[in-house]
Amino acid sequence: MGYVFGPVPSRRLGRSLGVDPVPLKTCNWSCVYCQLGRTRPLTNERKDYAPPGDVVAEVRTALEEHAGGVDWITFAGSGEPTLHASLGRMIRDVKGLTAIPVAVLTNGALLDRPGVRRDLLAADAVLPTLDAGSEEVYRRVNRPRGGLTFAGLVEGLVAFRREYPGRLWIEVMLVQGLNDSKESLAEIAAVLRRVGPDAVHVNTPVRPPAERWVAPPDVETVRLAVSMLGRTARDLAPAEPAFDLSPSADGTDAVLELLARHPMDLGELGGVLPRWSVAQLGEALERLRAAGRVGTVTRGGRRFWTSPLARYADTDRASRSHRGSRSAHAPQKVDPRTSTAATEPAKRIKQG
Asked: pLDDT tens digit string along 241-285?
């Protein structure tokens, strides 16, 4: 499947079936902590990046394959979902398929646009981001596209809260030395009081960030943040990686689709494919890497497997050499006539 992934575990949403309506890193922010790397180029263009009918059809198929195993359907993935011009239609069509609630993970940068707010009204929960309480910190952490302002972000959040009847859960991602001081936390708290969300989720970067120097704050700072950001704030510790691959999917394609949205280290991938030994899996991944079908980046001594199209500040050398312009939605093809080693993992990695 090109647009649907998971279900994946979520502290907020249980078993979440992901819906990814835009290509890799189609976004108007380039956050320093983003697990999918830097955004190049930044865009504010709303258009149908994927055919809405195809996206909804994949959701229908996935719901049939994972009957009883999905708690939420979540529009998220590898970019900013509100950039898809037909997001509202897709939300409504998905809700027409099932009683399972629908959530949207968004940076919230376009909530100052009435049309974007209307698109989100049908969702059961909307989860925007607020990592700053000032223009200066906003630009240092989120690195927005030109024309996007902190004032516009806040006004959009306030307007959306006024219009939206569903659950509004705001995520605050804390980065050591950027937005975790008492002053920064007090500024964020002031904005949260204006918005009045139903919950505030305090998070820290645990996946490979775009910039090598990004680090999470210490435990005491996280506790301070929770105490300062209001009575609905709580520490959102990450869930343990555990992915439910489609019963009908080829193992290689399923893993490649997961890595395009959720970089993982070898141990985590071993949990996805438990019938493979670490040595077998490592060998197969190296072959995929040599073929340009996966990339790697190292953070904190851990080597993460990623999309080969992801742009990090210091992507491992072999990954850089295989970058291209192919869509993250389309499986990357390798010519079997010229690369037997590259195609072998596709034959061997099968779901157990």
From this structure: 555 555 545 567 767 777 888 888 888 888 777 777 888 888 888
Name the residue among 66, 64, 49, 52 with its Cα closest to residue 6.
Answer: 66
The answer to whether position 242 is within a domain reads no
What's the CATH number where 156 sits? Answer: 3.20.20.70
Range of the domain at 85: 4-235
Q: Which residues pair with 172 in a beta bridge?
A: 202
Structural domain count, the chain: 2
CA 337 to chain centre: 35
Distance CA 58, CA 64 (A): 10
- The answer to whether 7 touches 242, Cβ cutoff 8 Å, is no
Query: Residue 292 is which amino acid?
Result: G
Neighbours of 23 (CB within 10 A): 19
Three-class DSSP labels, 162-176: HHCCCEEEEEEECCC
Q: Is residue 131 part of a domain?
A: yes
pTM of the predicted model, to two decimals? 0.83
